[in-house]
Amino acid sequence: MKWITRERPKIDRIACPWLIRRFIDPEAEIIFVPVADIPRLAAELPATPFDIPDTEFTHYEDRCTFDYFLEKYRLTDPALHRLAPIVRGADTDDHALASESAGLWAISAGLAYNTTNDYELLEKGMLLYDSLYSWAQHLYKEKHTQSPTEKLLLQIFNTYLHQKKSEKKKIPVWATELKEIIQDQMDTNLSLSLKAISEDLNVNPAYLSREFSKYFDNLTFGEYIRKLRIEKATQLLNAPQHSLSEIAYLTGFSDQSHFTRIFKKYTGQNPSDYRKNLAKGKADTKG
To answer: What residues does the HTH araC/xylS-type domain cover (predicted)?
Structure first.
């Protein structure tokens, strides 16, 4: 079977071909082309497109294409499901999902930078994911520090650090500045990126991702931004001049369907029902 996707792969477009060849179709042919050529070549070859919008094999809400392959082909291997949040975190820049995500992103970005041929890059990526899979199967509980004495010293040191943090939990300057940036840009920049913001703050993105939830309602960056978008949407639903598709656009969702799913997840109601209940409540108040 032939599979086709965008050129210059890094995370999902390497992880998915690895998954296909190792667990779905060992003879699969992977094709990398410019995105504009995909519809034509997918029909001519024919080939199944993946990791591009408006296809079956793509991102869904906060899940990446790797997650969809696992679900579609009912792959239940525990090691694959240990890999899934690592791939998802690296592919979506949500490194809080797994501590290994930042490392996977760094290695993948470096491989892509050093390797200009996509098919050579895929072969190197196959070795990378073979190694990750072995770790997820056999080594995920092991630590680099094996000496009992070293472990004990590290435990004591980490306990001391935890106590010091508990004694004085001061909000860092970057957290205050980050909140101001989000508040300032929320209405105008609907594609806020933790990576871009980390550059503005001059803070390591992996550290920022890991520490974010401590100062933002115990939410990840993605969850916090979605929460703000839903809050903005509830305000716009009070204004009858905006259609649901317009509100979806104004709050940064890909389309009305995506907006409806996320809104219902957070509020328990569809946007249309929420708006009707608002109107009914106003009418009852006047009555």
So the answer is: 176-277
Per-residue pLDDT of the chain (287 residues; tens, 9 = 90+): 999 999 999 999 999 999 999 999 999 999 999 999 999 999 999 999 999 999 999 999 889 999 999 999 999 999 999 999 999 999 999 999 999 999 999 999 999 999 999 999 999 999 999 999 999 999 988 876 666 666 667 777 777 666 655 555 577 777 787 777 776 665 555 566 777 777 777 778 788 788 888 888 888 888 888 888 888 888 888 877 888 888 888 887 778 888 888 888 888 889 888 888 887 776 666 55
CA of residue 122 relative to chain centroid, distance: 22
**Matching residue, tokens 């992977």:** 30
Answer whether residue 201 is part of any domain.
no
User: Which of helix, strand or coil describes residue 57?
Assistant: strand
Out of 139, 173, 189, pick the residue that ends a domain: 139
Count other Cβ atoms within 10 Å, centred on residue 220. 20
Distance CA 5, CA 18 (A): 14
Domain count of the fold of the chain: 2
Domain range enclosing 235: 223-286
Domain end marker among 121, 139, 157? 139
Residue 187 covered by a domain? no
Considering the domain boundaries, does residue 214 fall inside one?
A: no
Contact 221, 194 (CB under 8 A): yes
Beta-carbon contacts of residue 192 (< 8 Å; ≥ 6 apart): 182, 185, 186, 225
Domain contains 21: yes
Could you tell me the pTM of the whole model?
A: 0.55
